[in-house]
């Protein structure tokens, strides 16, 4: 019998994936003209968010922002150093279309780790990061502070494609 | 060496959990007054959503809305029949505070499965569900179509606590 700590990790994994699937299925239902079914998917996604965040809280997995940045840097570093490189190589070997997003992700996670590191240094000194303009490439997940680059250094789209998240 | 299909499942799990953690960490950063760090967490969460949805697409895991409802019903049924009951029992045995959300979730997933089943019957007949008012209990994840119940049948909060998701 797994411990409750182990159960919380597994339930968090399940709820997080349910959230993401339902969010994606909502977009598809909207495209197919099922507006109320899309709303049901979005609403249920939020129910799963409540469950996932409740499990995190019960597992004491929400720390101070400094703690949370350390956790985030650990995840990003694992992804770009260990997780994604062999996945990318395998997709290339199979000629699988997954290689596109694996290739984008391995580069984007490196950028995320560096930005979180910058934020950690500020927060440890009691400060916020100074840049309030934070730009996202919606094709590959690249992020740039201040102003978007002329072309995305990962996927090469133009600056005008970048968006900010409210 | 895992196949790309297996890698896509694992990468989707990782990205979905990163999305949920960063969303939660953003709320915490906001509470601690780090508004720009909060925005960095929210923006990075969206980058992980892009990766997760790209992996779903590369794995051909986004079907028609009817297919997606079948997938969703399968997940909800697994959670309320198999996954959550032993987790709840173990939390009770440990006297762990996790039992609260495990108890809410096991009941809420049953409701989600039934609502998705209702939506599936409509969609299979070429129709949308008729109710556009869809109410969420933000404490336990209960969902009700049409109008909120006087008290949540799972966690007992009043109707006025229920919310709708845009
Ligand atoms: Fe759930
Ligand atoms: Fe990342
Ligand atoms: Fe890009
Ligand atoms: Fe990612
Ligand atoms: Fe559910
Ligand atoms: Fe409730």
Question: Could you please describe the fold and organization of this structure?
Answer:
2 copies of one chain form a homodimer. By secondary structure, chain A is mainly alpha-helical. Chain A has 3 domains: 4-58, Ferritin, core subunit, four-helix bundle (Ferritin), CATH 1.20.1260.10; 63-130, Up-down Bundle (Ferritin); 131-166, Rubrerythrin, domain 2 (Single Sheet). Helix content of chain A is 65%, strand content 5%. Chain A has helices at residues 4-31, 35-58, 65-94, 99-124, and strands at 134-136, 143-145, 163-164. In chain A, strands 2-1-3 form a 3-stranded antiparallel β-sheet. In chain A, helix 1 runs antiparallel to helix 2 (35-58) and helix 3 (65-94) runs antiparallel to helix 4. Chain A is globular. The termini of chain A are far apart. At the A-B interface, helix 1, helix 2, helix 3 and helix 4 of A face helix 1, helix 2, helix 3 and helix 4 of B. The structure holds fe (ii) ion (FE2) (6 copies). One fe (ii) ion (FE2) binds at residues 137, 139-140, 142, 152, 154-155, 157 of chain B.
Question: What is the secondary structure topology, with strand pairs?
Answer:
The structure is a homodimer of 166-residue chains.
Chain A: H1 4-31, H2 35-58, H3 65-94, H4 99-124, E1 134-136, E2 143-145, E3 163-164
Antiparallel strand pairs in A: 1-2, 1-3
Helix pairs in contact in A: 1-2, 3-4
The site of one fe (ii) ion has 8 residues of chain B, from loops.
């Amino acid at each position: 019998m797994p411990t409750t700590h182990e159960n919380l990790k597994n339930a968090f994994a399940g709820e997080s994936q349910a959230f993401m699937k339902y969010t994606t299925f909502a977009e598809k239902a909207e495209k197919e003209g099922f507006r109320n079914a899309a709303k049901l998917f979005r609403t249920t996604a939020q129910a799963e968010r409540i469950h996932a965040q409740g499990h995190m809280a019960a597992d004491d997995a929400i720390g101070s922002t400094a703690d949370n940045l350390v956790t985030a840097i650990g995840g990003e570093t694992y992804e770009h150093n260990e997780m994604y490189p062999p996945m990318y190589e395998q997709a290339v070997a199979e000629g699988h279309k997954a290689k596109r997003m694996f290739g984008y992700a391995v580069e984007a996670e490196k950028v995320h780790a560096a930005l979180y590191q910058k934020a950690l240094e500020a927060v440890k000194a009691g400060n916020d990061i100074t840049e309030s303009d934070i730009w996202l490439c919606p094709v590959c997940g690249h992020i740039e502070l201040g102003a978007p680059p002329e072309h995305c250094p990962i996927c090469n789209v133009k600056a005008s494609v970048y968006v900010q998240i409210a």
